[in-house]
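B., you asked whether I could sanity-check this one before it goes into the benchmark set. Here's the sequence:
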Amino acid sequence: MAGMKTETEPAAKAAKGSSDNRIWSALCYVFPVLVSIIVMVTEKKKDKEVLFHAWQSLILGVGVWIAWFVVTIVTLGLASICFPVIYLGFLFLAYKAYMGERITIPTVSEMAQKQVK
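And here's what the prediction gave me:
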């Protein structure tokens, strides 16, 4: 994914995070809007890392959905075949979140970080 970079946490810090929090972080990308909202209204919002992934996946998910919808209308439905490829990108982000890594997406990550503070 062009323009993205991986920020790898030290192994000790990644191992320090509970597996429950890493699972929640990954689920934010598997079901972007639903799980992100659940994280934001439950006790999980206290964990800054989970909250970051929730905001990033929500912003990215809504943005990608709007862009995909517009392109699908303009191309008379041909862009709808791109959905599996787009979803693979979200699954990649989920994998990285589960491994304790952050993928920095220009503008989206900055917006998410501002919401976490």
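One thing to flag: Strands lie at 5-8, 101-104. Otherwise nothing jumped out at me.
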